[in-house]
Specification:
Structural class of chain B: mainly alpha
Largest sheet of chain A: none
Distance between the termini of chain B: 11 Å
Largest sheet of chain B: none
Oligomer: heterodimer
Strand content of chain B: under 5%
Helix content of chain B: over 70%
Strand content of chain A: under 5%
Structural class of chain A: mainly alpha
Order of helices and strands of chain B: HHHHHHHHHHHHHH
Number of helices of chain B: 14
Order of helices and strands of chain A: HHHHHHHHHHHHHH
Radius of gyration of chain B: 24 Å
Helix content of chain A: 55-70%
């Protein structure tokens, strides 16, 4: 059986490392936090020290604990939103692409409309009408974010399904009499997986941004600690003008790191789908080791093979030349 | 032409959906938000103002939803977006003061970031594997940073620490808004830092997209052919880039919404007197007529920008024209 060649470029490995680290933080964060994030008993505005790794807020709360505890709400909401949005985009996109006709027209119009409406303002309008009780509920917020973030995935999945539907190997399966269900699940679905995975990463990335933004402008309950709420308090207390960088830098850097990790993983998926990108993801040293030209030559698409090194190639050549 | 008409149709439907959502939300929520809202008015309202607010939500509740809906749309067509609860003046008047700032700041920086990102992306894609590739991880990081966070950091470093740029607002307090050079130069000076932070946050997306398309394009036969024909390198790159830029422009509809959404928050960080800053204040004061008015204006502006992007796309891609005549 052909094994899947998962790209092992350093970019992808770093991305995986970051994502696993924050995944652990989501589970363990509240347990390993040294203090209660609401505890205001410390001295205010302490700079980072051994006792308070990230310093304290102007209310005397430990910022390190807030960052650890805040990871959970941030990532859980992003995951809920990402999963729901991907599910929605899969149902809409695959149906539109596979069924075609009037169904396709209707569903495409729907996703185009949601693509054209700017997501964040829509999110703000919906969220501002939510009752205060629902604003502290991770699942309600996640669902609302999903509602504004599914359309991109649906469009990509529709295009991929349509292009798959007309491929020769699908046509062949149809001719040799495979059932419609077998074609859907055994032939089309595996080829959609990379696109689906990439779309999931993208929506999780979008959802983190959306959730943090909502919290930052004060539209989620301030009783739930997440990275956006921390930024909200930092902004409300003018931390950037009074030089308290340690207040808003930790949550901001965490958001950026999670985002970078997801984007790097996405590179891996892109390289998996498109061999041309795979080759371009290598460093100079790796290229040399694999016997690729140092500079890319026009008109040639070097495709990586597992271990077809110089040695085996020279054997082939020696066989041909008598 | 058919293609343009189709896109136009999508935008008309989108505008209609946005308007309908705006109308339905206050009616779908439990209780009676409109009544509560009028109860919250903090100043002495005249009967005419209450009537205007009522009308902007569809008039009297006794009239049934359909009737209210048409009243609402009629009011919109007359430019009545209701009266702001906290600022005690019509929403349309308030918006008229804020929109020019936002169009100036976000419009220019989005355009700048698109041009810059596409240019760098094309070069990166052409010279892949070169030392320039080290830009990519940095770009990925900047892409993941929320706009408002980058703005906050820039404000701290370059505004309050180094004093290279003025800190808050859109113009110096010593000048009054007018078409004089003193005012315009002050506005430019105050706009620099917000603009730099928007460009820095959004440039990476254009760059990476263009790079990937360019790499795919460089592998195409026509590029090899151009090189074989001995055309000057600069011209070959231009030809490849011209083809690689098409998906970038086709994806503008997704990107403009995202960029504008992010950029609105930069206004907050810098206290820039545009629509984004207004939106935050409206949210914090639960000023629903203002929130809804801003949502409508932003949506319509983004749709207009999309339409322009589509027209550019049709002008650049001859395939769309042959399809239309066939």
């Amino acid at each position: 059986m052909k094994t899947l060649r998962i790209p092992r470029s350093p970019k992808v490995m770093i991305g995986l490392g970051i994502v696993v680290f924050f995944g652990l933080l989501t589970i363990l964060g509240p347990y390993i936090a040294p203090d209660d994030p609401n505890n205001t008993s410390f001295a205010p505005n302490l700079t980072p020290s051994w006792h308070h790794w990230f310093g304290t807020t102007s209310l005397g709360q430990d910022i390190f604990s807030q960052t650890l505890v805040g990871a959970r709400a941030t990532i859980v909401v992003a995951l809920v939103a990402g999963l729901v949005a991907t599910l929605l985009s899969m149902v809409v996109g695959v149906t539109a692409g596979y069924v075609g006709g009037a169904t396709d027209d209707g569903l495409s119009l729907l996703s185009n409309v949601f693509l054209a409406i700017p997501g964040l303002p829509l999110l703000i309008v919906i969220d501002s009408y939510l009752p205060v009780a629902s604003r502290s509920n991770s699942f309600v917020i996640g669902l609302v974010i999903a509602l504004t973030g599914w359309a991109w995935g649906a469009r990509v999945l529709r295009a991929q399904t349509m292009s798959l539907r007309n491929r020769d190997f699908i046509e062949a399966s149809r001719i040799i009499g495979e059932s419609r269900r077998r074609i859907m699940f055994a032939e089309v679905a595996p080829n959609l997986l990379p696109v689906l995975a990439s779309s999931l990463l993208f929506t999780v990335l979008y959802s983190i941004g959306a959730y943090v933004t909502l919290a930052y402008i004060g539209l989620t309950s301030t009783s739930v600690w997440n990275w956006g709420t921390m930024l909200f308090w930092a902004q409300a207390n003018n931390a950037s003008l009074s030089g308290e960088w340690y207040w808003f830098v930790p949550p901001g850097v965490c958001i950026a790191l999670v985002g970078t990790g997801l984007a790097l993983l996405n590179f891996g998926i892109d390289e998996f789908i498109n061999p041309r990108l795979r080759e371009s993801g290598l460093s100079a040293r790796q290229r040399r080791r694999r016997g690729l030209p140092r500079r890319v030559r026009l008109g040639l698409t070097p495709v990586l093979r597992p271990a077809a090194t110089q040695a085996s190639r020279s054997v082939e050549i020696s066989k041909v030349t008598p | 032409m058919i293609q343009i008409a189709r896109r136009l149709g999508v935008y008309v439907v989108t505008a209609w959906v946005a308007i309908t959502v705006n109308f339905l939300l206050p009616h779908l929520m439990p209780g009676n938000p409109i009544q509560t809202m009028i109860g919250k008015l903090q100043y002495n309202v005249t009967a005419a103002e209450i009537k205007s607010i009522r009308l902007s939500f569809g008039g009297s509740l006794h009239n049934g939803l359909i009737h209210q809906y048409f009243t609402y749309i009629g009011q919109l067509l007359h430019g009545n977006l209701g009266v702001s609860i906290t600022l005690s003046s019509p929403v349309s008047t308030i918006l008229r003061g804020a929109v020019p700032w936002t169009v100036g700041l976000i419009g220019i920086s989005t355009l700048l970031s698109f041009l810059l990102g596409t240019l760098i992306g094309a070069l990166l894609g052409w010279a892949r594997g070169s030392r320039m590739d080290s830009l990519i991880p940095a770009a990925t990081f900047f892409q993941a940073v929320p706009y408002f966070f980058l703005g906050t950091v820039m404000l701290l470093i370059f505004g309050s620490d180094l004093h290279w740029f003025p800190e808050l607002g859109a113009y110096s307090l010593s000048v009054t808004p007018s078409w004089t050079w003193a005012f315009i130069s002050s506005a430019i000076r105050y706009g620099e830092l917000p603009m730099i932070s928007i460009v820095l946050s959004s440039v990476a997306g254009w760059m990476l997209g263009m790079r990937n398309m360019m790499i795919t394009m460089v592998g195409e036969d026509f590029v090899l052919m151009s090189v074989a024909m001995g055309r000057p390198r600069r011209k070959v790159i231009m030809t490849a880039a011209r083809n690689a830029i098409l998906p970038s422009i086709a994806n503008l509809s997704l990107a403009i919404g995202l960029v504008v959404s992010g950029a609105l928050l930069v206004e907050l960080v810098f206290n820039y007197p545009g629509v984004g800053d207004l939106l935050l204040n409206a949210v914090q004061n639960e000023d629903y007529p203002l929130i809804q008015g801003i949502f409508l204006v932003i949506t319509l502006a983004v749709l207009a920008a999309n339409l322009v992007a589509d027209l550019v796309y049709f002008a650049l891609d001859p395939r769309t024209r042959t399809l239309a005549t066939a």
